[in-house]
Design a protein that fits this description.
alpha+beta; single chain; 6-stranded antiparallel β-sheet; 23% strand; 45% helix; Nuclear Transport Factor 2, Chain: A
Length: 199
């Protein structure tokens, strides 16, 4: 078959390359610019960008063939395989960085002074210890901590698992002149929804 690449819309696309393109799907607008397939820039249009990766994945190979000159089908396939490998690598790195970021935030929250104060409140409450049963294990806190110099605030929650029952602790803390204090803290027992004031 005659090489029809780079001949625009009228070019015949070889059947062996007219298939799903992972590079176009995963690296969409970057892939589009490199392959003179500027329809990929629709990735910057809200709502359209939700559909465009799938359109590029399905039609990208045909567009890349028509918009660029390729020495052969083999060369085209080799280049697209490299794009797919790079796309996969980029996504693995991004997911890894995201996981590291989330883990760092969780570790930071769990080692925070306000969280430790809330755990102390839980473990020193006779009602909570009686309801949950000793020993009590605490989970990873969720919520937020805001600090600005010597002042700050926190609103968080974490799981509490005891020998008899489980629950969830909700608490709010404030930092004033560099000192954290728990304003409100309650333990909500799993199943019953009963709440115990930890203050």
């Amino acid at each position: 078959m005659k090489n029809s690449s780079g001949q625009g819309k009228g070019a015949t696309v070889p059947a062996e390359i007219d298939n799903w393109n992972w590079g176009a799907f995963l690296l969409n607008w970057i892939w589009g610019i490199r392959h003179n397939t500027f329809i990929a820039l629709l990735m910057f249009v809200p709502l359209v960008n939700m559909v465009m990766p799938f359109v590029l994945g399905a039609r990208g190979s045909a567009w890349a063939w028509r918009n660029n000159y390729w020495e052969s089908v083999e060369q085209f396939r080799e280049v697209q395989r490299k794009w797919a490998k790079w796309a996969l690598l980029v996504y693995v790195v991004l997911v890894s960085l995201f996981v590291i970021l989330i883990m760092s935030i969780m570790v930071g929250m769990k080692s925070s002074e306000v969280y430790k104060l809330a755990v102390d409140k839980l473990q020193s409450s006779p009602e909570a210890v009686t309801a949950l049963g000793a020993p009590i294990r605490t989970g990873v806190p969720m919520g937020y901590i805001e600090v600005s110099g010597p002042a700050g605030s926190a609103s968080m929650s974490f799981n509490a698992e005891g020998a008899k029952q489980n629950g969830r602790v909700y608490f709010e803390g404030t930092k004033d002149l560099g000192q954290w204090a728990i304003k409100r803290a309650v333990l909500e027992l799993e199943g019953t929804g009963e709440r115990i004031d930890l203050n």
